[in-house]
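Q: Give me the 3D complex with UFG.
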Amino acid sequence: MKIVVTGGLGFIGSHTVVELQNEGFEVIAIDNLSNSSIEVLDGIERITGKKPLFEHIDLREKAAVQDFFKKNNDIAGVIHFAASKAVGESVENPLLYYENNLNSLVYILQELTNLPTANLIFSSSCTVYGQAEKMPITEDATIQPAMSPYGNTKQIGEEIIFDVAQVTNLNSVLLRYFNPIGAHPSAEIGELPLGVPQNLVPFITQTAFGLRKELAVFGNDYPTNDGTCIRDYIHVVDLAKAHVIALQRLLQKQNQEKVEIFNLGTGTGSSVLEVITAFEKVSGRKVPYKVVPRRSGDVITAYANTDKANNVLGWKAQFTLEDALGSAWKWEQKVRS
Ligand code: UFG
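A: Here is the predicted complex, encoded as structure tokens.
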């Protein structure tokens, strides 16, 4: 079965391509290489023994999307990762985010819903919950006003999918990720942030490697055990496997609603200081850090209730925080060698 993975050379996309190929799917990876590298295809091949088909397409180009679907009208499903994802950048350049994240989705839906079956897995985010009132966060928690244009594109993306599914043959699973981290255990693929990392774990691994002088911990005066923010860090391989399970659910018509939503997290929250300590333990390296003022837009605490993913989707995270941090460290060392 032919599956399209947009953003297939990106961080979560590439790990999902690996898991799809391991399950025997034929994958076409689409990417515009704006935040990824063509060498990722070699990494995927070294892990799975097979290079996925690759199309260098910018999904903002409507004609290119139409052309692709015309040539590939036997697609069984689309997993749509391609999107810009830096919160700060989205505040600086909102139109880039609205154009890139929403146009691509609209163009894909326009073509996909012309096929006999239209199955879509959509990358959403726990950012849609904002600062949820209750922990752990369930899928029916209130959607809060978005804190950034990036977050808004995820909310609007979900709404677009609901609206389209009402009146077309579209079936979709919206996956709300908590904090994806780590790399493939082989260290053949992983996260490749451009420039200074904005996210905690790549900043930690680069600091431990000596590329950055010290980590800035954004605030230690939050109402948490140690004063630092709490997140639910999930291994990217666990996350990738959830996409394959969600896709199989649609292909086997096991979905109970036209659009289903699942949280993807471990169910456990870890503070920034706990992540640093866990990293130091698995790597044997010290992470120099200093506490600086809070970063604007950060929620205090966010971790998932995973009951629905566990019981309905039949997926559960297998890797620990230490596994994920160990794999991120192995990847950092490999990339720099
Ligand atoms: N942090 C630091 N120092 C850093 C980077 C991060 O202390 O250099 C802290 C943050 O303040 C936060 C935690 O580490 O408390 C995690 O921060 P990340 O930037 O790694 O992750 P976020 O939780 O801010 O963001 C992630 C995704 C977004 C998504 C968001 C939803 O990267 O795409 O979750 O909450 F929108």
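A quick observation: DSSP finds eleven helices and 14 strands in the chain.
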